[in-house]
Predict the 3D structure of the following.
Amino acid sequence: MSLYDCIFKPHVYTLADGTAVEEKRSRAPLILLVLIALTVLSVRITGFDLAVLVKKGSKFFDILKAMFPPNTAYLGKIWQPLWDTIKMSILGSFIGAVLAVPFAVAAASNIVTNRVVVFLVRLFLSLVRTLPTLVGALIATYIFGLGTMAGTCAIAVFTFAYVGKQLFEIIETVDMGPYEAMEALGATRLRAFTTAVFPQVLPTYLSVSLFCLEGNVRYASILGYVGAGGLGLIMNEKIGWREYDSLGMILIVLFVAVMVIEGISHALRKRLT
């Protein structure tokens, strides 16, 4: 019996046949109390002030109002950064998704029987996954310099970690009967995997990669803040110069581009699954 049950005794009901049945007390009051305590502690540590939020929050709507009507004359200068953003997203997603396959296979316990290898590969994927995309882009700018190359590398790393995690979990749920049958017939593990396992996970793998691409278009538009090129670069510039009407035009173009890409991705994923 837990400490909670010792303090708050369970209800005891006696059935018609004389059998005593216990009903444990709900943990909801305890959970609510812990949540309230953590909330109060968080407010004290962070210095959160609701009054300041209410007072300053109206400035957001002032900026939003300044964005409209958008500066349509600036539209011609948006196409190249937008194309850079899309290129970074597509190329980075493709590279990351392809590189994720061998690591996902090595992390799947039903394919690789060596527990040490499985543990190390999973640990590596977890470590890469903890690296924020912006930090990855910042590191890449020091290595490759300013521009879309750094953004592409950051997106590839993010996609690699995300797709790799999803893929090895999918691989572990497949029917291993065909794989084991091919091994029994003398096929190598690689041949057995590509013939019996990969076709089972391919639709989901492509669906996950396309879903990741959708998010990468949005992430790529922010990477310009650390010098990785794309729309983020001119967004940062217009915010700095307080040219909110031009910023509004950038956001409208980005919104339309994201909606188009998400629509195409959604249609493809529906056909795959």
